[in-house]
C-alpha cells in the first residue's frame, strides 16, 4: 500500500438510527508529518462504534467518515520523524480514530503517530485487533484507577463482555480473588475457564443475594443502572468502584448514606481522555501477557468487512462472548 491507493472502508454517511452506512472505496491521503500509513488487517467492533454511528459521540460535522476506533495492521508508509519503520506491526487506537477522523474499519488508514503502538510481530493479529479499546480499558481500570494488588477481592460485572473477559484474567494475574457476574448461563462456564473463582448468573435485582458474603475491595462496573447501587451495598469498607459504562442504564439510583459510611471511592474511567502514553503502556502490557500465554482475548467471531452489519447485530443482541473482530482485508 502506498500514497494514492484506494481502500475499502465502512463509511458513516449521516448520523441517526439506523445510521446510513456502506462499504465504499476511499482514496487515502499521503501521511503528513507525524502520521503513518497502516495496512489494516483486523479491527475490533465496540459499543462506542454504534454510539458514534448514532451521533451520540464523535463529530457529526465530519461526515462521511470511516467507522472504527481500534485495529491492527502493518506500517506501509511513515512520514519523516514518525519513529516507525515499514513492516512494523502496530495496534492503532485513540487520537480520535473513528470519532473525529477516519477510523479502522477499512483496508488501510492514515493515523497520527501517537495512535500507532508497535507490538511484537509474534502477537496473533486477531488478538491485536481487539486490544485497543476493551483490553486497554480493563488494564487501566484495574491498574491505574483501581490500583489492584494481590490482596484485593475483585467483583467484575458484565464478566462475559469485551472488558470483563480481560478484567477477570488481569485480576487473576495480579493474584487477586475474583467473582464474575454474567446475565446469561451460557457464558458462565466460559468466564470460569478464564480464572474466576466463582461466577454468578444474575441481574441487578438479585446481585447482592447471589454474591453473598464476598465483599469486594474493587468492583469493575461497565453496566451502571441498578448494578452500581448493588455494588455499593456489596463493597467492603474503603472499597473502590470503577465505573466505565452504563449499558444497563445511565440513571443510577445512588445509596448515598451507605456510600459515605463505608468510605467508598467511585472512580470514572474515560477512554476518550486517556493520554497516548497511558494507552501505549496498556497496549504493550496486554500484548506481553498474550504472548507469554498468561492472557487471551476471547474472539467470538471473525467477520469479513463486507458483513459489518452482522457484527453490529451480534453486539447489540448481547450474544457475543468477548469480542467480534472484522477481517478488513476480506
TrEMBL record:
<protein>
    <submittedName>
        <fullName>Alcohol dehydrogenase</fullName>
    </submittedName>
</protein>
<dbReference type="Pfam" id="PF08240">
    <property type="entry name" value="ADH_N"/>
</dbReference>
<keyword id="KW-0007">Acetylation</keyword>
<dbReference type="InterPro" id="IPR002364">
    <property type="entry name" value="Quin_OxRdtase/zeta-crystal_CS"/>
</dbReference>
<dbReference type="InterPro" id="IPR051603">
    <property type="entry name" value="Zinc-ADH_QOR/CCCR"/>
</dbReference>
<feature type="domain" description="Enoyl reductase (ER)">
    <location>
        <begin position="21"/>
        <end position="326"/>
    </location>
</feature>
<dbReference type="InterPro" id="IPR020843">
    <property type="entry name" value="ER"/>
</dbReference>
<dbReference type="GO" id="GO:0003723">
    <property type="term" value="F:RNA binding"/>
</dbReference>
<dbReference type="GO" id="GO:0016491">
    <property type="term" value="F:oxidoreductase activity"/>
</dbReference>
<dbReference type="GO" id="GO:0008270">
    <property type="term" value="F:zinc ion binding"/>
</dbReference>
<dbReference type="Pfam" id="PF00107">
    <property type="entry name" value="ADH_zinc_N"/>
</dbReference>
<dbReference type="InterPro" id="IPR011032">
    <property type="entry name" value="GroES-like_sf"/>
</dbReference>
<dbReference type="InterPro" id="IPR013149">
    <property type="entry name" value="ADH-like_C"/>
</dbReference>
<dbReference type="InterPro" id="IPR013154">
    <property type="entry name" value="ADH-like_N"/>
</dbReference>
<keyword id="KW-0694">RNA-binding</keyword>
<keyword id="KW-0521">NADP</keyword>
<dbReference type="InterPro" id="IPR036291">
    <property type="entry name" value="NAD(P)-bd_dom_sf"/>
</dbReference>
<dbReference type="GO" id="GO:0005737">
    <property type="term" value="C:cytoplasm"/>
</dbReference>
<comment type="subunit">
    <text>Homotetramer.</text>
</comment>
<keyword id="KW-0963">Cytoplasm</keyword>
Amino acid at each position: 500500500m502506498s500514497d494514492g491507493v484506494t481502500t475499502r472502508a465502512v463509511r458513516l454517511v449521516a448520523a441517526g438510527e439506523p445510521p446510513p452506512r456502506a462499504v465504499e472505496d476511499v482514496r487515502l491521503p499521503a501521511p503528513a508529518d507525524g502520521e503513518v500509513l497502516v495496512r489494516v488487517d483486523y479491527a475490533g467492533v465496540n459499543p462506542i462504534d454504534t454510539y458514534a454511528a448514532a451521533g451520540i459521540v464523535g463529530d457529526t460535522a465530519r461526515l462521511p467518515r470511516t467507522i472504527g476506533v481500534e485495529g491492527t495492521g502493518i506500517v506501509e508508509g511513515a512520514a519523516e520523524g514518525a519513529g516507525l519503520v515499514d513492516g512494523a506491526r502496530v495496534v492503532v487506537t485513540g487520537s480520535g480514530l473513528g470519532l473525529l477522523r477516519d477510523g479502522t474499519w477499512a483496508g488501510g488508514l492514515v493515523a497520527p503517530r501517537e495512535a500507532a503502538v508497535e507490538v511484537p510481530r509474534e502477537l496473533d493479529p486477531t488478538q491485536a485487533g481487539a486490544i485497543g479499546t476493551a483490553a486497554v480499558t480493563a488494564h487501566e481500570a484495574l491498574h491505574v484507577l483501581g490500583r489492584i494488588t494481590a490482596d484485593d477481592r475483585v467483583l467484575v460485572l458484565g464478566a462475559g463482555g469485551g472488558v470483563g473477559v480481560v478484567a477477570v484474567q488481569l485480576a487473576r494475574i495480579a493474584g487477586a480473588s475474583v467473582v464474575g457476574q454474567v446475565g446469561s448461563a451460557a457464558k458462565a462456564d466460559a468466564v470460569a475457564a478464564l480464572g474466576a473463582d466463582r461466577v454468578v448468573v444474575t441481574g441487578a435485582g438479585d446481585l447482592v443475594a447471589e454474591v453473598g458474603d464476598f465483599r469486594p475491595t474493587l468492583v469493575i462496573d461497565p453496566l451502571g443502572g441498578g448494578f452500581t447501587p448493588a455494588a455499593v451495598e456489596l463493597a467492603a469498607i474503603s472499597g473502590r468502584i470503577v465505573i466505565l459504562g452504563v449499558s444497563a442504564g445511565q440513571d443510577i439510583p445512588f445509596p448515598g448514606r451507605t456510600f459515605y459510611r463505608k468510605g467508598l471511592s467511585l472512580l470514572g474511567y474515560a477512554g476518550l481522555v486517556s493520554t497516548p502514553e497511558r494507552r501505549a503502556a496498556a497496549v504493550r502490557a496486554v500484548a506481553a501477557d498474550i504472548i507469554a500465554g498468561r492472557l487471551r482475548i476471547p474472539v467470538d467471531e471473525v467477520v469479513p468487512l463486507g458483513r459489518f452489519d452482522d457484527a453490529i447485530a451480534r453486539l447489540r443482541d448481547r450474544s457475543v462472548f468477548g469480542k467480534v473482530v472484522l477481517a478488513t482485508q476480506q
